[in-house]
Amino acid sequence: MRYGLEQYDHHGFLKAPIWLWLGWLFLAKAWVVFVVAGASRQSGSDILAVVYADHRFLYLGLALGLPSLILMWLINLRKPDRLKLNRFVAMGRTITLFSIAAQWIQISYQVVLTHGAFHWSNALTLVILSWFAMYVYRSRTVADSLRTPKFA
C-alpha cells in the first residue's frame, strides 16, 4: 500500500497534496487580487491599478485562472457515482499543465513588452510556474490523486 488510510477521503479518493492546492491557488492569483480589490471598496481600483496596470492582463489572468478554480471546486465533489465529473477531474493534470503553459506565455509576453527589462515579479512568477510544471508532470502523488480509483 503506497498511501496511508488518512490520505484518502470517505469516498475512497486520494486527497490532493497540499503543493497541488497551493499551485492551483497560484494559478488563480488574478482571482485572488480581484476578490481582495472587491473586498476593499475605497481602494479596490487602486489595488487593481498597482497589480495590473493594463486591465487586459487582468481579464486574461481571470480567464487563465478559471480552470484551476474549477478543478479546486470539483475535486471535492468526486463520488463513485459521478462518472463524468470523475473523468473531468482525471484530466486535471493535463488541464493544469496547459494552464501553466498559457500563463508562462502570458508572462513571457509581458517581458517582451518591457523590452526584456528585469522585474522581480515576472522572474519569480516564471520560476514558480516552471517548478510547478515540473512538480505536476513528475509527481506520482498528483497523478494518483487525480485518477479515478477502480471501485468493486
UniProtKB/TrEMBL annotation:
InterPro entries: DUF2919. The keyword S-adenosyl-L-methionine does not apply. Keywords: Membrane, Transmembrane, Transmembrane helix. It comes from the Bacteria. The chain crosses the membrane at residues 12-37, 57-76, 88-105, 117-137. This is DUF2919 domain-containing protein. The lineage of its organism: Bacteria, Pseudomonadati, Pseudomonadota, Gammaproteobacteria, Vibrionales.
